[in-house]
Design a protein that fits this description.
Pfam families: Aminotran_1_2
Protein name: threonine-phosphate decarboxylase
Function: Decarboxylates L-threonine-O-3-phosphate to yield (R)-1-amino-2-propanol O-2-phosphate, the precursor for the linkage between the nucleotide loop and the corrin ring in cobalamin.
Number of helices: 12
Strand order of the largest sheet: 2-8-7-6-5-3-4
Order of helices and strands: HEHHEHEHEHEHEEEHHHEEHEEEH
CATH topology of the largest domain: Aspartate Aminotransferase, domain 2
Structural class: alpha/beta
Catalytic activity: O-phospho-L-threonine + H(+) = (R)-1-aminopropan-2-yl phosphate + CO2
CATH superfamily of the largest domain: Type I PLP-dependent aspartate aminotransferase-like (Major domain)
Radius of gyration: 20 Å
Largest sheet: 7 strands, mixed
Number of domains: 2
CATH class of the largest domain: Alpha Beta
Cofactor: pyridoxal 5'-phosphate
Shape: globular
Length: about 350
């Protein structure tokens, strides 16, 4: 199970290290924090937990459709985007799954749980993990399911819409179903240049996955959605619980998608902090910092003389937790990932790293 561990388990870290508080750089959550509108919507809906939630989150699906300009009858809402990944794998029952790597570990875990053999299309570190799309396409043949993050976690790799369509079209011609995970796309102001959501109407071998928990800072509620063709959507609905999304998560989702001010300010604030933390980390000579596209930064620490495990332990003394990336296929103990946090927290991280690496 260690292979599939994630960041963000701060309760365990606090308990195991006897800490009172911690700055969590291990989970890629919007540093702008929880919207007051979302919080108020949850509180206002609290008394309704004596009732069942709306089946299949019908109102929320309509709101998602309006927000992302996609037909609501192409959408399914999940108890987190990860639930949809697992349900999909157990429906498709792929024999061979191709994963663009390094990538989110739940792709592999879900595919393995459905009996698939796993293959990797490795992004090239020599190209700062920005491999050309043709290097992924050549791996498709012989696979019946492909997972790709766009933007990709943890590398930040981001492909243009035109490149993504080439991939999807080639996969369709080779009998391969494509899952494009756009869980971090909301952080990108010009998302229309990258998002493949409009292609759901065109291709039958495409499912676009989207998280609402990262951008809206509600990972504890678990909320995500996917858009796909009815050939896959109908079996997804048949395979899931009709009350899979609780009423508080549905209320939070409705409020989140209506909160245009929060969306605008979040993108501005987060972009400022992404640029700031990247520039500050880049001043530390012993770090190789890969240029970020969204709210996390991958770093090669091989020149520090420390392993990722050792650096993580040292930073815990500063009440800071980071993501050790050694369990990502294609990475090892030379890699860590820093989430982008508030200015004060980002400064604390840079100060701690400066002292450790002196």
């Amino acid at each position: 199970m260690q292979k599939f561990e994630h960041g963000g388990d701060i309760k365990s870290v606090i308990r195991e290290n006897n800490l009172n508080e911690i700055m969590d750089f291990s989970a890629n959550i919007n540093p702008y924090g929880l919207s007051s509108n979302i919080k108020n919507a949850i509180l206002a809906d609290l008394d309704n937990i004596i009732h069942y939630p709306q089946p299949n989150a019908e109102d929320l699906r309509k709101k998602i459709g309006e927000t992302y300009n996609i037909a609501s009858d192409k959408i399914i809402v999940g108890n987190g985007a990860v639930e949809i990944i697992y349900t999909l794998c157990h429906i498709l029952k792929p024999k061979n799954a191709l994963i663009v790597s390094p990538g989110f570990s739940e792709y592999e875990r879900a595919a393995r749980s459905a009996g698939a053999d796993i293959h990797y299309a490795m992004l090239d570190e020599k190209l700062d993990f920005n491999s050309p799309m043709r290097d992924i396409i050549v791996n498709i043949k012989g696979n019946d399911l492909l997972f790709i993050g766009n933007p990709n976690n943890p590398t930040g790799t981001l492909y243009m819409l035109e490149d993504m369509e080439l991939l999807i079209e080639h996969a369709e011609n080779n009998g391969c179903f494509v899952v494009v995970d756009e869980s971090f796309m909301d952080f990108i102001k010009t998302s229309e240049a990258f998002s493949v959501l409009p292609l759901v109407e065109k291709y039958h071998n495409l499912l676009v996955l989207h998280s609402l928990t990262k951008f809206y800072a509600i990972p504890g509620l678990r909320l995500g959605f996917a858009a796909t063709d009815h050939e896959v959507l109908d079996p997804l609905y048949a395979a899931k619980d009709i009350w899979n999304v609780n009423s508080l998560a549905q209320a939070a989702g409705m409020a989140a998608l209506d909160d245009k001010k929060y969306q605008r300010r979040s993108r501005t604030y987060t972009r400022t902090e992404i640029n700031y933390l990247y520039e500050e980390l880049s001043t530390l000579d012993k770090l190789k910092v890969y240029e970020p596209t969204v709210n996390f930064i991958l770093v090669n620490i091989s020149k520090t003389g420390l392993t990722a495990t050792q650096l993580r332990e040292k930073l815990l003394k500063y009440n800071i937790i980071i993501r050790n990336c050694a369990n990502y296929p294609g990475l090892d103990e030379n890699y860590v990932r820093f989430a982008v946090r508030t200015r004060e927290e980002n400064d604390e991280l840079v100060d701690a790293l400066t002292e450790i690496l002196e």
